[in-house]
Design brief:
alpha+beta; two-stranded antiparallel sheet; 12 strands
């Protein structure tokens, strides 16, 4: 994070607006050329072993804060900012492992470790960096949706972290600053260090097949209400408290996100997921593997469950508390007697 441009033109979004922005589907296109093969970004999971052990838990936790800030992206960003040095001070006064400027830190820094909020406390700084990144992601997503900028949300988020969101808005994309363009490229390249490529879904796999395969690899993972996101299974809340897993909509969000190489972010809840994408008739002769099916069991407009069609009249889904991600037959009465909305995303 650099001074001057880092805060230029920045407006803090109200929390409700930020959450609303994150729930909107983003078919992200453009951005800088990929630094590696398509498959490396399509099928990558966090390799925490590459993160210094004392920071690993913080990076993993912070990488769950919003879909755009994955642990591997955050790890690459911290390496680029400070080389993992919690005591780093730049010539212009940027502080700590995440290189916060004094004027920016109070807006995002919180006491995460019980020792008082400080940019020199790694836990505080790592969480604050993710918090700032997520707010920038919501902001630049708004620019894209209103036609004021174009590109990949993650790329524009990184550019805004380096140069300030005002510069992203001025240039309607990644600013024409050599430093900022290099910053985005370097972090994209460093991400390869902090992620493992999953080899069983090759680059070029048809989108629907990839959606199915990403979901199917989690068969047996517990259902956790409120659990799961684009990074994988996580602990839920309410009935999902203490259980690490997926609920129905997070499994769909995860599979579609990774099948698209991180370019397609569905809303988090099933009721919203069935409102986006291409409508498909409820007809097995037309439906394709990877199509998403929303179910309204009471036929009152409440699409409270959602699954992924895998072909042959079956779907993979996360059914309910006490169950696991599994394959079910769509002829089962609960599903057969529900109203359906079927959507296709690629």
């Amino acid at each position: 994070m650099k001074p001057g441009r880092a805060i230029a033109g920045f407006l803090v979004l109200p929390f409700a607006l930020m959450v609303a922005a994150l729930l909107v589907i983003a078919a992200l296109a453009g951005g800088l050329p990929s630094t590696g093969p398509v498959g490396a970004r399509l099928n990558a999971t966090f390799n925490g072993a590459q993160v210094p052990a004392q920071y690993r838990e913080w990076v993993t936790r912070a990488g769950q804060m919003c879909p755009e800030v994955t642990p591997q992206l955050l790890a690459a960003q911290l390496e680029q900012e400070s080389g993992w040095n919690p005591n780093a001070v730049s010539p212009v006064g940027a502080m700590g492992i995440a290189q916060f400027m004094p004027g920016t830190w109070p807006n995002y820094g919180q006491d995460e470790d019980g020792g008082g909020a400080s940019p020199y406390h790694p836990g505080d700084a790592i969480m604050a960096a993710a918090r700032y990144d997520c707010e920038l992601a919501a902001l630049v997503r708004g620019y894209i949706e209103t036609g004021r900028a174009s590109g990949d949300v993650q790329d524009l988020m990184l550019a805004a972290y380096n140069a300030g969101p005002g510069a992203v808005l001025k240039y309607a994309g990644i600013p024409q600053y050599t430093e900022t363009q290099n910053y985005v490229r370097v972090i994209r390249s460093l991400m390869d260090k902090y992620q493992d490529v999953i080899p069983d879904i090759a680059a070029g796999t048809p989108f629907g097949q990839a959606v199915v395969e990403f979901a199917m690899r989690h068969r047996g993972v517990p259902y956790s209400w409120g659990g799961g996101d684009t990074s994988g299974p996580s602990e839920g809340f309410g009935n999902g408290a203490g259980v690490e897993g997926f609920d129905c909509s997070s499994l769909v969000q995860y599979a579609v996100y990774h099948a698209s190489g991180g370019k397609l972010m569905l809303p988090r809840v099933s009721q919203a997921q069935v409102t986006v994408g291409q409508p498909v008739p409820r007809d097995f002769a037309v439906m394709l593997p990877g199509d998403v099916i929303g179910f309204d069991p009471h036929r009152n407009g409440d699409y409270s469950h959602i699954g992924i069609y895998i072909g042959n009249g079956q779907m993979v889904h996360a059914p309910k508390t006490g169950d696991v991600v599994k394959v079910s037959d769509l002829s089962e009465s609960y599903y057969a007697n529900s109203a359906w909305l079927v959507r296709r995303f690629g």
